[in-house]
Design goal:
The complex is a heterodimer of chains A (about 160) and B (about 80). Chain A has about 160 residues and is mainly α. In chain A, about 15% of the residues are buried. Chain A has six helices and no strands. Chain A starts with a helix and ends with a helix. Chain A has one domain. Chain B is mostly helical. Chain B has one domain: 434 Repressor (Amino-terminal Domain) (Orthogonal Bundle), CATH 1.10.260.40. In chain B, about 60% of the residues lie in helices and about 10% in strands. Chain B is globular. The chains are: A mainly alpha (about 160), B mainly alpha (about 80).
């Protein structure tokens, strides 16, 4: 009984997977919406830098609202199915995993930032490549953060 | 899995102390149940403070709860 309980996915692991899935859904959904509706302004002959900035900044409130809604739904489903309440505390192990996940996430985003800047140095590379790098590596850094969390929660350290 | 040099008797001590559950021990030392699970399975080495808190719950010295095995890493690296 006890061993079975231990092999089950922990609340933190379920929350991380949920967070990654919602990140993918929000990123893909928002990107597709923007791409289909404003393709000319993003990738046309005359790139609208102001529009790029607006599209990226608008992603922040959209993402926050969507995540809050998804988190509430997840908490309700989790409590009903597993009968386990959200842990109210963040202990030393959680903090250590947070730090490691944050570190790896920053490495990836830093790499994306550097590649974005490098793309401006090469002639013939369109300016929007810099924004594409920022958005893509922003998303990748979030995924790496989730994968790191899962790795440490599952395998230990 | 990374080899942990520190083994522990928490599970045995829990059973000897009126079958204390993982959740009860976690509440007493101020961590989540998952952290107690990870410590018991030697997937996580607690901080010194948490180790002392766990020992205090069972009212035993620290070395009766945790044991340092330097050979565990050596055996692992030979493989």
């Amino acid at each position: 009984m006890n061993n079975q309980e231990e092999e089950k996915m922990s609340y933190q692991e379920r929350r991380t997977i949920m967070s990654m899935l919602s990140g993918i859904i929000i990123f893909v959904g928002y990107s597709l919406y923007i791409y289909q509706k404003y393709n000319d302004r993003l990738f046309g002959n005359e790139i609208d830098l102001k529009f790029w900035a607006t599209a990226i900044l608008m992603m922040i409130p959209v993402s926050i609202v969507a995540r809050i809604v998804i988190h509430i739904i997840f908490s309700i489903i989790n409590e009903v199915t597993s009968r386990e309440k959200d842990p109210k505390i963040t202990d030393e192990r959680d903090k250590l995993i947070d730090l490691r996940a944050g570190r790896n996430s920053h490495y990836v985003f830093g790499l994306g930032f550097m590649l974005g800047m490098l793309s401006l140095l090469f002639e013939g590379t369109p300016t929007y490549m810099m924004f594409v790098c920022f958005v893509l590596f922003g998303f990748l850094s979030e995924m790496i953060e989730g994968i790191t969390r899962l790795y440490y929660y599952r395998r230990g350290f | 899995m990374p080899k942990n040099h520190i083994s522990n008797n928490i599970r045995t001590l829990r059973f000897l102390n009126e079958e204390l559950t993982q959740q009860q021990l976690a509440d007493k030392v101020g961590v989540t149940r998952q952290t107690i699970v990870a410590i018991e399975k030697a997937k996580y080495s607690p901080t010194l403070e948490l180790a002392f808190k766990i020992a205090a719950v069972f009212n035993v010295p620290l070395n009766e709860v945790f044991t340092y095995n330097p050979d565990a890493g050596a055996k692992d690296s030979k493989k």
